[in-house]
Amino acid sequence: MIIVAFVIAATTLTVMWLLLAHFLPDVSSRSKKSLLHLQTGLLAVIVAFTFSYPSVSAATHPKVGKECSKIGQTEVHKGKMFKCVKKGKKVVWKRVKTAQVPRPAVTQSAPATSDRSTFSPALGCKLGSPWPDESENAGFPRGANFAPALGDRKSLVIFVEFPDVPRDERQIQEWKNHQIPAAEKAYGVMSYGKYNLRYEYKEKFFRLNDPSLYYYKNYAKLIQDAVAQAQKEIDISRYDFVNVVTPNTDNIPDEGAAGWAGGIGTMGPIGEYLDNPSKRNWLMHETGHVLGLMHGYDYRGASLGAWDVMANSFGLSDDLLGWNKFKLGWVADTEIDCLGDGVSRETVHRLGPIGAAGENTKLVVVKLNETEALGIELRRKTDIDYLTAEAEGVLVYKIDTKIPSGEGAFQIVSNPTKFSTGTNGNRVLLGTMKLNEEVDFAGVKVKVIHEDSDSAYVSLSSSV
Ligand SMILES: [Zn+2]
């Protein structure tokens, strides 16, 4: 290409020179000198043009056996791929067969969704509980004794030691490096930024006056005494709740959240969760209790599975069920499709993932009676839902607010035989449904009728 351009340039200059010499025979030697400058300038312009002009002429197309310059270079011409390779002493183009690129599937257009104004107000789906304002339960409203769940909030961590059980330096390290960062991140993500919790602490151990056995089963007193010690140095009124962290001892056999005279707090030894990656959500879980969430799963075996940090998620998810987020006010009333009178006609709903912010419908609730409902939500992989593609899908569960903590208030009803393995090797129920899968429960048929990158569409109809 460059050689060709040079030839053209040289020919042009020669012709010009001859023409000029012919038509201007009387030019002075001074003028001839200027003419020479003009020629040189023209040559420069042509050379510059030659170098800058992109190589698009037909002469550059690769062809099998034709010489090329750069080994390894590939080029596609008329849908065929060529590669510049060394063949013997020559460097030539070779045809390369490429794998057929699959043609993208023709995307089925999204189905029309039902008019949301025909649904019940979200209030109609806020099931009550037989124990309002008392203990943790699955219903509405949240008891006033629990910590606030909205806004910028602070919690105080108090590390303690007993006269008979010395401090364990790992208490602080575990909290600083694992428990606190994991919980702060998870609550920000779970709540879509509506609950920004920060845990603060002094890097010191507060010594309690009584021996560890004194606090056996007396956890309110443990929290109260820990606060009394910390209060000498820290203004406790700045915090919504406290977390008392004890060294490991059999004299403190329990762990969890407890109400005390001044409010609510978590307490527990570090034995179980120290250096155990599947327990990095311990503080996250206990904080859920402080907010009024209970164990929705069944201690006797019917696992709630991977889907809620208040269950045995075994490291598969640090998120919450949509119902729990609804209860805490993180899923807004406008993000609920509430069928307050059950299902009497076919409806179509577009669900955004429960783990993603944005004003989507995040949860469909079908009220079955005063204390029972179906929850339908979409689970996709997020920063705190550690899902494989296979585990993702639409989850359908039954909510029963008259069932107490640990006895299965939440029960997965879709795909009850779809399990996964948690980080400890435990079998964990997934229950998610993919496209065209359906479940028929309590007279309600739920079917996944469309999926795309950021939503799933479900149809609901009566099966009775
Ligand atoms: Zn718990």
SSE blueprint and pairings:
Layout: H1 2-23, H2 29-52, E1 74-77, E2 80-87, E3 90-96, E4 151-161, H3 170-190, E5 195-207, H4 219-230, E6 241-246, E7 256-260, E8 263-269, H5 282-290, H6 322-328, E9 336-339, E10 347-351, E11 363-367, E12 372-379, E13 393-400, E14 410-412, E15 419-421, E16 427-429, E17 438-441, E18 444-452, E19 455-462
Helix pairs in contact: 1-2, 3-5
The structure holds zinc ion.
Structure description:
It is a single chain. This protein has 464 residues and is of the alpha+beta class. The chain folds into 4 domains: 1-58; 61-98, no CATH class; 112-139 and 295-464, no CATH class; 144-291, Rossmann fold (3-Layer(aba) Sandwich). 20% of the residues lie in helices and 26% in strands. The protein has a 5-stranded mixed β-sheet, sandwiched between helices. Strands 9-11-12-13-14 form a 5-stranded mixed β-sheet, covered by helices on one side. Helix 1 runs antiparallel to helix 2 (29-52) and helix 3 (170-190) packs across helix 5. It is flat. It binds zinc ion. The site of zinc ion has 4 residues, from helix 5.
